[in-house]
Amino acid sequence: MRRHPTPRPGGPIVTTTQWRPNILFLLVDCLRADCVDGRRRFVRVPNLVRLARGGLHATQMIAAATTTTPCVASILTGTYSPRHGIRSLRGYRLRPHLGTLPAELQRLGYHTHADVTGPLLPAVGLDRGFTSYVLRNKVDCLDAGWGSEIVRHLTTGLTEPWFAFIHLWELHLPRHVSRELDSWRFGRNRYERALSSLDANLAPLLAALDPRTLIVIHGDHGEQLGAPRHLIRFYRWQRKKLGRHFPPWASFPVREGHGFDVWEGLIRVPFVLHCPGRIAARRLPQLTRQVDIMPTLLELLGVEPPAGIDGRSLLPILGSGDEPEREAYVEACGATIVDPRDYRRAIRSARWKYIETADGTGSAQLYDVVRDPRERHSVIDREPAVKAEFREKLAERLATNEGSEDSGLSPQDQAVSDAQLRNLGYIE
Description:
Elements: E1 23-28, H1 46-53, E2 56-62, H2 68-77, H3 81-84, H4 101-107, E3 111-116, E4 132-135, H5 145-156, E5 162-168, H6 190-208, E6 214-219, H7 229-242, H8 264-267, E7 268-274, E8 282-289, H9 293-300, H10 315-318, E9 328-332, E10 344-348, E11 352-357, E12 365-368, H11 384-398, H12 411-424
Parallel strand pairs: 1-5, 1-6, 2-8, 3-4, 3-5
Antiparallel strand pairs: 2-7, 6-7, 9-10, 10-11, 11-12
């Protein structure tokens, strides 16, 4: 029988012995970073809190985009959109030369399975490396028959070792709330009640797992919640006065959803690694990136990450902690932005966030997110040196564009994709 060493307080345990655990990757659509630490007063998430407090909890992870499809591509490839080629929900396909996390795990003998929903169609190329890839209906949630089905599949339907990538849709608009939890005791708004419902419905799945399973909790991107009524009235007055000249980013205080900008509530997502006996409980407050997930999981298994990716393993931070500061690249490229020229892109460091429009013609912004975490006051005119530095870093990131390789969809696949996006309400 394989023996598991005693956890060290310094971080994950990496041994020279081969470690091939079953891996459950729970990707919760629209899960904000502030939702798994138990600090939201009216939300009841005991299962998420237990996993976060009992494992490695990266509290400052930055998503690669604020739209699902580019984010999942970054999770699975360890690369940003300019490199992997998926720049929005519609019209793009994963570039064919890129390796993926499930493909790497297949080489290690893993049975790789995905159960996803929403816009993650196989035609986009995100099924690469999966032994089985299921695109289910958006109404299939944990408290319906699908919940029991996925528990049975994880416990009896997969050959060990397995990697299961499960995409949960409960928090996405219009949000799914279990009937018995639809009251103020479980949340002040529908998002919080959906989160309480999700946590409660995770209990049977988590209880059915072998305790040696490596569990990953992650959000693809965050979510902007509604604003107070007086701000909504002010927004409507502004929009009426400015008409068609009303800038899309100005709706930030009142918009609910995601994809339309790169604000903190939209880009900060939780990342938890939970495996008692192998990964010690620890909070990681340094800035980390979604593209770091793939190399981290591979290095935990003793595998060298592929060359040429944008991410770096988190394990060096957990050792001496002496490594260069990480900076995240983010795009807002959702279907909610009508004109692609209004797509937003940003470089986020531990202190600064620099934002500009995709065509470079809009007004750029610079925020000190340490002193101004709500991003109320742009300091771009007061910090010309920082502006110049971050514009150069943004240009370097965009220079990784491997656009010479076709990443578009065929007309047939585009028609299927459009039908799915129409069903989801992204396009009319």
